[in-house]
Amino acid sequence: MPPCRHTIPLALDVLELDAEWQRRYPDMKGTIACRPCAPRTSWRCTNPNGSFEGHLPTGRRCFDAWSHTSPPDTQRGMVLAAPRSGPLQGAEPYLRWRAGHKDTPPEVAATLGAALDEWDAAQRSRATSLTTAAHPPLARRAGV
User: Fold this and answer.
1) Beta strand 50-51 with 46-47: parallel, antiparallel or unpaired?
2) Residue 56 in 3-state DSSP?
3) What is the pLDDT of residues 9-46, one digit of tens each?
4) CB 91 within 8 A of CB 74
5) What distance lies between CA 134 and its chain's CA centroid?
6) Partners of 91 in beta bridges
7) Which residue in 42, 57, 87, 137 has a CA-CA distance of 20 to 30 Å to 131?
8) Exposed/middle/buried for 34, CB within 10 Å: 0-12, 13-18, 19+?
9) Which helix (H) or strand (E) holds 16?
10) d(Cα 18, Cα 121) in Å, to the nearest integer?
11) Are the C-beta atoms of 117 and 103 separated by less than 8 Å?
């Protein structure tokens, strides 16, 4: 799912949102967004006195939300370019398949593998914390 939480049709190109989007919207899910949704979000990078406090510049001329998106790409291409966002947004099966495919270049497979290892570790950690919260140790339950 993209940050807007809509399912993106496979035929629709997507954009990657940069660190400024993540700073402004810390609860967004992943960094891949559909082309119709991202441009509808409007904010300015500068005010009459210069940049807004905390603004993360792009390294090129930067004036609004649109300045903080990548060029459009296919969903498959963008998931390969932003593999840490892929599992968050439903592309985990594709990334696992692509990482293990015989035609995937070794450096791409390594990058995908690292992102998937991080995802797996986060899922294990999350599962452990949920289990611990649901079933606290006996001493805590007994009030000891």
Assistant:
1) antiparallel
2) coil
3) 778 889 999 999 888 888 888 889 887 777 778 888 87
4) no
5) 28
6) none
7) 87
8) buried
9) strand 14-16
10) 24
11) no
